[in-house]
Amino acid sequence: METLLVSTKKITYRELAPLFKGPVKVSLTKGAEKNIEGSYRNLCSLLEKETTIYGVNTGFGNLSHISISAADQKQLQINLVKSHASGVGDPIDVGTVRTILFLKLLTYAKGYSGVRLILVKKIIQFINNDILPVIPIKGSVGASGDLAPLGHMALALIGEGMVYYKGKILPTRAALKKARIKPLDLGPKEGISLINGTQVSTAFAIKACVDGENLLKTADMVGALSVENSFSSRKVFRKDVHQLKDHPGQQTSAENVFKMLRGSEIVHSHSNCGKVQDPYSFRCIPHIHGACRDSFRLSASMINNEINSVSDNPLVMGDRTVLSSGHFHAEHIAQALDILAISFSEIGAISERRSHYFMKGIDSRIPPFIASNPGIDSGYMIAHVTATALASENKTLSHPASVDSLPTSGGQEDQVSMAPWAGKKLFEIQSNVSCILAIELIVAGAANFMASSRMRAGKGTAPILEMLNDHCRYDQGDRSLSSEIEEVTDLIVSGNILQEVSKSLRLE
Known about the structure:
single chain, 508 residues, mainly alpha, 2 domains, three-stranded antiparallel beta sheet, two-stranded parallel sheet, 20 helices, 9 strands
């Protein structure tokens, strides 16, 4: 079991990948503890002076002008958590919930939230016992914090709502009783601090990056298999050609494809064919995949910056002042997710075009639709139609969420980010792309089976063909392809294809 440290040290999304794989252990550094305790002392000092603090001795949002007496301040925090737990939809997956909790710890470790150390240790207790709040996926507009989903998170900490525990969904009090854990008794500012923040939006973004890195590498591998088995040119992927363009993503994609095809007899079999140029979807793989890689790198940088930021409101400053800003606003995350949506949509779009190229037939070597008996057999015609449907879905889903906004809280929160929706539709895009790439793999594998199976494949494509032959019944002609598409999609999503190819060569 992995152990993750909560500190003020800068980290990247890659270091949070274990949270999605299964239970983890979390511990707090002494420096983080010191920051948390110092911030709480500063808050207590301000309250002793009866300083007006938003959400502590005032109402919330458009009710911030209403003063709250000391006797009612504890109930204020409880009411806040209960009222904000108003999300709907399917539960967020458990890996993402772990990440949400851990991101909340990272903000507290910086010492600007005014919460007690006992609250932080309660979150750690939940993570270490893998007691994970059931959080509905819909309800946040990504501003003023991910209020509704974080409300459900906070609800579990005070012993209400539902949680995942030992593979089951249970009422929180029942799970805590089994684990011998007491619910949290909220202190001043703790309710508002729990629900304020970009942790849900950022957790979505981290998941998209972790999954997306695998997809980008897989796209290069899939493209290489299609280049090889469509009898397209390898020369256009030469390093010296792509050094003429100053785009690192382009250079990386070109190098990956070139390496994948090393030693391929199939490539060498048509070296003097007289063909001048291949379609864009083949020879421009480095340009299109590369642009998507560079956009991914930009988005990942923005997401990493948010991981390492304070995301709370109001802020308890070191000089014992309290300030309200907008650090709970997820605009950076929303725009990063929108950029990723466009990028992955393009990965799917170019993949569908490569599958389409095979459907037309290639010279005398591959008949239309890679059908054994064209006319009687339809071959891979409808598998390509499925890829087309998914690519079209992605075009609609990649419309930016961050350009939309509806005012909330009586107009006080008048420009929101819509980051959670940007993340949710990005997940759908990435899922579609995995299927589109799987269909391209099956199609390119069928072309190999029909025309090139007796020739040696490239160093990187050979292991892919072996895996495809284990899962695809190429010798059976027309058949239902749904199960094969699902199986190959699973090989992509699980990273098994990337892992298998990585045994023989290193891809960037």
